[in-house]
């Protein structure tokens, strides 16, 4: 809510002489809500407000706006990749990023390797089918140890009743509380 109040204030008060900066617009909501809001806000600014605007975002889908909206240009951080590592060159270059580097950043930040590996597996699943719901080891048919636990079916049923790709942070917390109550 705080973010949207701030954005509303900007939209109501900015002019063509303003310089607007947004950092990860829509981050407090589900992926699709955030993407939709960000795109609509950028279109409004480009067409109506016409202010100079800088936005940092991880929504790759917005790269296409460069050819669709007047004055929109993409820039990204230069990256050097090898088979073993990714090096962020600390240089801004023209054009959108060729891919997301979230997992690489997590690795550089010191996230445990087991989580990095599992994230890469989840990413491969999602890239094959963007509508695919994340299949955690808890729900995996090959994990017989967990399936033998009587709580498995209850938790599985709860998780399957949610569209986790379109869930807000508050709904995620409520979901966790619901699962915790069942365990």
Question: Could you characterize what this model shows?
Answer:
There is one protein chain. The protein is α+β, with helices and mostly antiparallel strands and 183 residues long. It folds into three domains: 2-74, no CATH class; 101-132, no CATH class; 138-183, no CATH class. 45% of the residues lie in helices and 14% in strands. Strands 1-2 form a two-stranded parallel sheet. Helix 3 runs antiparallel to helix 4 (113-128) and helix 6 (151-160) packs antiparallel against helix 7. The longest helix is centred in the first third of the chain and has 19 residues, at 31-49. The protein is globular.
Short description:
The protein is α+β, with helices and mostly antiparallel strands and 183 residues long.
Please state the overall shape, judged from the principal axes of the Cα atoms.
Answer: globular
Q: Specify the structural class.
A: alpha+beta
Element-level helix/strand string: HEHEEEHHHHH
Q: Enumerate how many helices there are, as a single number.
A: 7
Distance between the termini: 32 Å
The Rg value, from CA coordinates, equals: 20 Å
Could you give the count of β-strands? 4
For the sheet with most strands, the description reads: 2 strands, parallel
How many structural domains?
Answer: 3
Strand arrangement across the biggest beta sheet = 1-2
pLDDT < 50 stretches = 132-145
Strand content: 5-15%
Chain-averaged pLDDT: 82
Could you estimate the helical fraction of the residues in percent?
40-55%
